[in-house]
Design brief:
The chain has about 160 residues and is an all-alpha fold. The chain has 7 helices and no strands. The protein has 3 domains: about 40 residues; about 40 residues, no CATH class; about 30 residues. Helix content is about 70%, strand content about 0%. Keywords: Membrane, Signal, Transmembrane, Transmembrane helix. It comes from Neolewinella agarilytica.
Length: about 160
């Protein structure tokens, strides 16, 4: 109960709007710096407990993601990665022609690698993941059918 109350007080202190934030642009990192452990401890007048530090790190991560999204939206968004789209299309086509399952996997993995290197300037990560999953399912189904046919052929 004591941890819950102190975490609630911490959240209220952190989420109360301050007039200094009104002039900041969405891409500014000042709100994230405001969530610094030393700054919060100074506001509270005591050291943070372990659970409070964990909660603070979660809140800081959410604030960083929100700032990145706001910056991306303010910049007009980013174009969808072509490899991700190609991966999804190849994954869907894999249900009709199993030859496109391997390109779906390869293109999806390349697109995910590009997202990991530069996540701020690309969108379409969901399409890349869907392409990898669809390509993997089609490839697994094809290999399973080949295995069943080989086992059946060997019995005759």
């Amino acid at each position: 109960m004591n941890y819950t109350l102190s975490l609630f007080i911490l959240l209220v202190l952190l989420l109360t709007p301050e007039p200094s934030f009104a002039a900041l642009t969405p891409a500014a990192e000042a709100p994230v710096r405001h969530l610094d452990r030393a700054h919060v401890e100074q506001q509270l007048g005591r050291k943070l407990k372990f659970k409070e530090r964990i909660g603070l790190s979660i809140i800081r991560g959410k604030a960083k993601r929100q700032a990145r999204r706001a910056a991306k939206t303010a910049a007009g968004g980013s174009p969808v990665d072509g490899y991700a789209v190609a991966s999804l299309v190849c994954g869907i086509l894999g249900f009709f022609t199993f030859f496109t399952a391997i390109p779906a996997l390869v293109l999806g993995i390349i697109a995910l690698g590009r997202f990991n290197r530069d996540p701020q300037y690309r969108s379409g990560k969901g399409m890349a993941i869907a392409g990898v999953i669809l390509g993997g399912l089609v490839l697994f189904a094809v290999l399973l059918i080949i295995g069943i046919l080989a086992a059946t052929w060997g019995r005759q």
